[in-house]
Amino acid sequence: MDFESSERAVGPRSEDVLPETATAAVKVVIVGGFGVGKTTLVGSVSEIRPLTTEETMTQAGVGVDDTNGVERKTSTTVAMDFGRISINEELVLYLFGTPGQERFWFLWRGLFEGALGAVVLVDTRRLEVSFDVIGRLEERGVPFVVAVNSFPDAPGYPLEEVRGALDLAPGVPIVDCDARLRGSARDVLMTLMRYLQTLALTTEAS
Ligand SMILES: Nc1nc2c(ncn2[C@@H]2O[C@H](COP(=O)(O)OP(=O)(O)O)[C@@H](O)[C@H]2O)c(=O)[nH]1
Ligand SMILES: [Mg+2]
């Protein structure tokens, strides 16, 4: 194999290369309880091969990770997901998905450094998982939007009911999504970007 072809074999794919027009990069964190679809969401919107540290659940996780309602789930993200999406020619989002299990909370240290905002993914079958996650974002003052991931056997509560159950502040956007669909996952990120813009304008005005 000559040098050139081996170079090509290990080099970046064209879609992995950041366009030269990109001038603004924003860090966004995707959080939520176990099995709410974080890895799925990052995977469906990312234009680079998402980096994921999915691992088959081992005995260590048995009885620790709550698999109620997610019985078919046999893998779990042990560290994090990473992906990238260009919103337009200038703006690029870097997505960091992080596990919601309490035993991984040490990973949260530093994770929100430089993060402009977060998406909290929720599953209506297990809303309680999201309480702590939301509380932690509020403590840190990280703006977030809530995305309700629709699972077929999940009760379809009206969004306003979910908002009430999660005790969200009135301005916090809440939307439905299907994390498996690129368009839907992208809409969630657009909702976050619009919300961040509104917050920035409000701060400027005051
Ligand atoms: N029906 C449905 N299944 C989903 C959706 N999002 C994720 N899943 C499935 O739910 C399981 C957990 O998703 P995963 O992304 O691994 O969750 P994570 O632990 O938050 O990273 C996987 O088997 C996914 O295929 C969704 O929007 N609808
Ligand atoms: Mg995951």
Automatic annotation (TrEMBL):
Superkingdom per UniProt: Bacteria
Keyword field contains Nucleotide-binding: yes
An annotated Gene Ontology molecular function: hydrolase activity
Keyword set, alphabetical order: ATP-binding, GTP-binding, Hydrolase, Nucleotide-binding
The keyword 4Fe-4S is assigned to this record: no
Family: Belongs to the GPN-loop GTPase family.
PANTHER family, alphabetized: ATP/GTP-BINDING PROTEIN-RELATED, GLIDING MOTILITY PROTEIN MGLA
Name of the protein this chain belongs to: ATP-binding protein
Organism: Streptomyces lunaelactis
